[in-house]
Design brief:
Number of strands: 12
Strand order of the largest sheet: 2-1-3-4-5-6
Shape: globular
Order of helices and strands: EHEEEHEHEEHEHEHEHEEHHH
Radius of gyration: 20 Å
């Protein structure tokens, strides 16, 4: 089947997902064409409605925000919901401008896409429930995103880290939704025998909120991020809401257990006490206590890391995800 995968706003996580899906569909014998449009079109995606689909296109897969703009007569359209921004649980973590954009334009875009798409997909049960409620219980299929479990894999050698500190890692934007505001408090509770490395560049005001046992890594490429996962003892992820936590998937695939929030889509990935630990949202003491417990129980830490790898290989691989999309395409 010839599949067109148009993307608005290149460079995003959606682009990474789309390119990986395209590559895997190609390996299954489909012809998948990725086309990227400038970020500015996210504010006026209808301007792309006259863009001609590649010759021979038999199906179109797009992001829910703008998929309606790529609907073409006689060609089935699949829309994917990655993070449902109209979820009320997200409201406290938006700026006024974001809230206005989402509740006016994006709400309209989502409704148009839902009316025109032949299949609606969400990347987690949590996202699917929120999306269905918005749509009045219109059918939404859940296909969880997968990751490259060959690339994201445990280190072939021993972890390269100082032995006098328990190494924590945070990967993500330094925002309230990601729970970054809780990290200094957690690190104060843990003390000098723990070290937290964190990614992404921070503004000066953010740097003032860090602690001596918090070490910036800057912006990392894909290989550097994998190495950071491999070298960490634990990924700490106090996020407040995730469509599907790819950071947790990647760390777990590398054999690094996750201490994360028990909320949104996290319980779909982490089984607390088996392949990681979950904490009540905003409970900095629980995060500190569970990290401290893992630091004193090396056997459990190692066992959780192995089971975390098994979870991701078994349930969140790219091959599994692509097979589900291939089946969906066959139904069209």
């Amino acid at each position: 089947m010839n599949v067109w995968l148009p993307i608005v706003a290149g460079g995003s996580g959606v682009e990474v997902f789309t390119r990986e899906l395209s590559s895997k569909l190609g390996a299954l014998g489909h012809t998948a064409i990725v086309e990227i449009f400038p970020h500015s079109y996210q504010y006026a995606p209808w301007l792309l409605k006259n863009r001609r689909a590649p010759a021979g296109t038999e199906a179109i897969i797009g992001n829910s925000w703008n998929a309606f703009a790529f609907k073409r007569d006689g060609i089935p359209l699949v829309s994917i919901q990655h993070l449902f921004v109209l979820d009320e649980a997200l409201r406290p973590y938006k700026s006024l401008g974001q809230h206005f954009f989402h509740t006016t334009l994006v709400r309209h875009f989502e409704q148009r896409t839902a009316a025109l798409a032949d299949k609606l997909v969400a990347v987690s049960d949590y996202t699917g429930r929120s999306y269905r409620e918005f749509l009045g219980n219109k059918p939404v299929q859940v296909i969880r995103n997968g990751i490259d479990t060959q690339f994201f894999s445990p280190s072939p050698t021993q972890k390269d880290r100082p032995r006098d500190k328990f190494q924590l890692l945070f990967v993500g934007n330094f925002t309230r939704r990601k729970g970054a505001d809780m990290l200094p408090v957690i690190m104060d509770k843990l003390g000098a025998s723990f070290s937290l490395s964190y990614t992404s560049g921070l503004r000066v005001k953010d740097e003032r909120r860090t602690r001596a046992n918090m070490l910036p890594l800057g912006r990392l490429n894909k290989e550097q991020t994998r190495d950071a996962y491999r070298n960490a003892d634990v990924l700490i992820f106090p996020t407040r809401l995730e469509g599907l936590p790819l950071v947790a998937l990647e760390a777990m695939a590398c054999g690094t257990p996750v201490v994360a929030t028990d909320g949104s889509s996290l319980p779909e990935v982490v089984t607390s006490g088996i392949d990681g630990l979950l904490c009540p949202q905003d409970d900095t003491q629980a995060f500190a206590d569970k990290v401290a417990w893992l630091s004193k129980n090396a056997y459990e830490l190692e066992a959780m890391g192995k089971r975390a790898r098994e979870t991701i290989v078994g349930q969140f691989s790219l091959d599994r995800m692509t097979a589900q999309y291939a089946h969906l395409l066959s139904e069209l």
